[in-house]
Structures are given as C-alpha cells and as structure tokens.
Amino acid sequence: MRARRSLVDLSDLTVPEIYALFDRAEAFEAADPGRLLSGTSCVNLFFEQSTRTFTSFNLAELRLGANVVNLWPKDMSLATKGETIEDTAATLSAMGVNVVVVRHSKPGFPNLIMSAFEGHVINAGDGAHAHPTQGLLDLFTIRREFGRIEGLRVALIGDIVHSRVANSTVNGLLQLGAEVVLVGPEVLLPASYSRDGVEIERDFERMLPEVDVVILLRIQRERFNAETMSDADFIAGYQLNAARLPKLKPGAIVMHPGPYNRGMELDDAVTEFTGWRYARQVHNGVYVRMAVLDFLVNGAA
Ligand code: CP
What we know:
The chain is an alpha/beta fold. The chain has helices spanning 15-30, 52-63, 77-80, 85-94, 109-114, 132-146, 164-175, 204-207, 231-238, 268-271, 278-298; strands spanning 41-46, 67-71, 99-104, 120-126, 153-157, 179-183, 198-201, 213-216, 253-255.
C-alpha cells in the first residue's frame, strides 16, 4: 500500500510546482476559496510540541472546510498497547482519513506512515531532517518581499546542524536560484555543510552587510546530548542585537521560523526592527498550508 502524493521535503516538488503553490497561496489570501476540502478528513498527529505549525495546519484545514481530528499521541493505542505506527496508519486509512499531518522527533517517521496509508502524508517536521511547509512559507515570504528569489543572497545563522528548517529552507533556496551563506561555529555548522551554492562563514559581522535576508535559528538544546558551546560564547559570536543591526545592508530583512529565544539568537531590538518579518512569516504560513493541502488533495489544476 502506498500513500497518494505526499510532502516529506521540498525535493518532492518541482520548481514550477513551488511557484504554483505560491500563486495559489496568494489567491487564497486575496479571496476566500470556499470549502475546497469539503468531505476531506484530516488527522493532525503531533508527537512533538508545536505552536505555529499545529495551529496553522488546523486553521488551513478548517478554512478549506475539511473535517479535522487532532489525535494526541499520549492517548493513542500506539503509546501503551503495542500497536505499530504502520498499523495505526492502516487503521486511519480504513476509516477513510484522507490526510495525515505528522510531526515526530525521528527522521523518516512520515515514510513509515506512507508505507501503510492510502491518503496524503504531510511532514510537519521529522527530527533534524525536514520541515517542508516551513521552508515553503520562508521562500514565499522572501518572494513577496523582493519579488524574486533568484540571485538573492540569504544567510542562515546559528544552529544549522540540528535544524530541519535550515535543511528544507536551504534546499528550497537552492532550487529557486538563491545564493546561500551558512553562518555559525564549527560545533553547530560543520565544514562538511559546504556544497555547490552554499558558503560557510564563521564571522557573523563580516557577513551582515553582504546579504539580503538573514534567517535566525533557535539553538535546539533539546537535541544536544552535551553542552557543546556555552550560551555566552554563542551570544558573543552570533547574536543579532542592537549593536549589530546597523551593519545590515539597507533594505535587508530578518526572519525566524520561531520559536525565538530573546537573549540568545536575538535581543529585543531585533523584534522592533523595521525589517523584522516573523509575523509575516506566520501569517503567510496559513495560506501556504492551505495551498499545499488543496494541491495534494485536489491536484495541480
Ligand atoms: N516553526 C515551527 O515549526 O514552530 P512550531 O514548533 O511552533 O510549530
């Protein structure tokens, strides 16, 4: 048994499909598309905490008229009664569930569901592997700001190694022709991350005047086994703050997938900066997720 078309990472989409999703998201924002998912059943299955992605998918599903079930892992037979995730997925299939949106700490977990589920699976974040709808909403936000993505220089700062957002957003930026600069210390950004189209930069301040977009990332302490870098050292080297904001190129924007930690990767001056685009990202995320749901369920037309 195989899932119908699913979204595990941005590599599942062609470049024309990504642009078509952007157009669809813009159309959905401009005018209520109505109940395009009437009769569609969506299950949201979040094994890890989430504020933005969970709420955003719920709103997107409800605005499109879907039937929505939020299934809490601690209450599932999977948790205590020995049921496998594959058998859980087959059970949801047999009930006529059409879409499963899943977040889990294990990379590849959405594929386990896909192996036993006949509907569409959307990866809402699997460990440090991928978070495709966050990548799409980041790209969408950049395109709305600059009217293009190709040729822009975009920097991602900080904890790259533990970030599924970085993986998906970098893949999307490269697909759409941006130049990518990854910025961080060796422990959070190994030199092996260098590849075609991706530069590694250790000096945050030297990079700031050279980029159009700065994407800050949270230090994911929950994914570390040991303290590999002190907070003080990270802040000294890589925090965006009142002292560093003036070094940005004029017109540059600052983004963050959230949740952000004030006092770590940014200070209060960043959230008051005119180029701070976090709220636009989360706003755009609802329309991008509506577009993804409609595209998977109803097709490209
Ligand atoms: N950006 C993001 O994935 O946030 P949540 O963990 O709150 O969903």
